[in-house]
Predict the structure of cyclin-dependent kinase.
Amino acid sequence: MSAPKSRWANEDPEEEAAIALRKREKEEKKRAKAERQKLVEQQQQQQQKQSAAAEQADSAEKATERPTKRRRISNEPIPSAETEGEKVEVQRKLLRFPAPEWAPCRHVDNYEPLNHIEEGSYGLVSRAKDLVTGEVVALKKLKLDNSPDGFPVTGLREIQTLQRARHNNIVRLREIVMGTSMNDVYLVMDFLEHDLKTLLDDMKEPFLPSEIKTLLQQIMSATEFLHSHWILHRDLKTSNLLMNNRGEIKIADFGMARYYGDPPPKLTQLVVTLWYRSPELLLGAEEYGPEIDIWSIGCIFGELLTTDPLFQGKNEVDQLSKIFAVTGPPTQQIWPTFRSLPNAKSLRLPPSTSSLGSPMNPPLLPRSKFPYLTNAGLSLLSSLLALNPSARPTAAQCLKHSYFREDPRPKAKEMFPTFPSKAGQERRRRRATPEAPKHGEEAPRLDFANVFGSGGGGGAGSAEAGAGFTLRLG
């Protein structure tokens, strides 16, 4: 049974035939479009297959080709390019490593000179201001005028060690600048308001025990860093210790510093300013190590306690006599090898010598010399000033000493008093203190026969000309 027709339907047969014809044409167009789409997809698939086959063929051809360079597996001669009929080009690639680029030094005109501070053995130190940042710095002009061999080795060592020694208690080398001539070489370093020698001379009373511990800890920390990097300072003294108004100490003046090894190399004995020079150097030792810096720190420790240098000798003979007056004469019990030193052969010991102590346990210094020092402090000072270099502790061992853990504890740097800066207002006054030895001098053989005689070697009859020693009168 057919569905009933709508009463609005057109029952004209011609119109129905036309509608049916339009339906058939529409279906044929859809079918033709689908066939064309199918044909395009087949063509794309065929092209992809052809390209894949071409790639496989190229890779196979490359695999069958002979490499430009093959590993030799026998001692047969390598055929040349002419015999093979082709020229082989070898491409070499350079390995690149990150490194600082070479660049010219800046000119000293980038700094405005403010005032002269002082003149040392190897340079003139001035105060200057950076024109770009406005920071106040210290300019050290190296002395190159009397250098026939070119750039002085002392300047090279100072630059090398300052570049390597990056520590909070070591003065920082910012850069190297040049002047108008090749002899104008300046080291730009951090500026600190004081040097410890000037402060001690101007102070009415010495530092407090807690302040001495803080200063000594900083000096020991910087020295331990230097020795752990195989660097000897070789001129530690209070005038080479700079201090700012924040209680920070920094070691400066590395003109005599140098690297050493184990075993230590043969070195010159003309190092360290006379008042801070160890007895083995005075007796002509040519092989030494960090022990000479430890002795200098012991002298600095005693100077912090009394505000005056411990041993103020006029020459080498007088210096040794003043040392023995405090420490006692050397004996075979406390220093078994001292007779092997060159200048010790002429040393005449007093007839009655004490046998107290041992090679690794030196006797204590006299209590009357340091009445306000604790037992732990006297023990540390006595070990620093031991005649036998082997009995002196390392800087790392000193930092662990009980002296720094007993009361009063080291004072915080922020609690340190401030002092007016002499360097910022005027020249630092020249003191009647010896200078450091000059580079290149030869050490003479000295006669220490009268060290324990009348006058202790400091009289008119026994005043040898001290090697590397000049007296500066203020």
Summary: The chain has a mean pLDDT of 81.
